[in-house]
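Posting this for the archive.
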Amino acid sequence: MSTDSRVRVLLVEDDAALATMLAELLTDEGYEVDAVRDGQAGLHHALTGSPELMVVDRRLPAIDGVDLLVRLRSHGVTAPALMLTALAGVTDRVEGLDAGADDYLGKPFDVDELLARLRALRRRHADVADTLPLAGGRLFDLEGRRVVDETGRDVQLSGREAALLQVLAGRPRRVFSRDELLDLVFTEADSPGAVDTYVYYLRRKIGRDVITTVHGLGYRLGG
């Protein structure tokens, strides 16, 4: 297993045999794979599942790969995307990259090269992921455990506050249940009330709009 954590990959590929092979390959490499067969399903999964990497075929039913990436980027999905396609001409590569692809690999491809390119995408994305955006133009500095607003005001967070905010900000469209957050952040606590308490602390420090309560479900980032 070459990955150091279960990175979630959205695979959008309509060729059944290739999709099965890629899903098995990526799973063996330690990725958590969501595989879908058309652009419409890819759009839905990317908007609701918060993937950390995307592998997208160029020619897809319902919504083609280029249009899919344009829509995802317009909706604020920033997960790095590798486009796979048999259309490997310069014009095709430029169109794919301009649509929002971070890398482009022609078919047929070498499996080792594909895996290396995905690792490179993860490294490049990590290099710019030391800060995460929050509502109201604020930025969350992960390393410094602080939130900075547009005026330069700096708010320091405790370790638990920072850990909770990092989970929510890492997947900004996902709703996390209290039990999920309890497992991810408060491993030694036995009551979901700990989650509510630290949500309150964060709202008091950096604004009520930083975390939304989704009644009956849990919490998500944003106002």
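DSSP finds eight helices and eleven strands in the chain. The helical segments are 16-28, 39-49, 65-74, 90-99, 111-127, 159-170, 178-185, 193-206.
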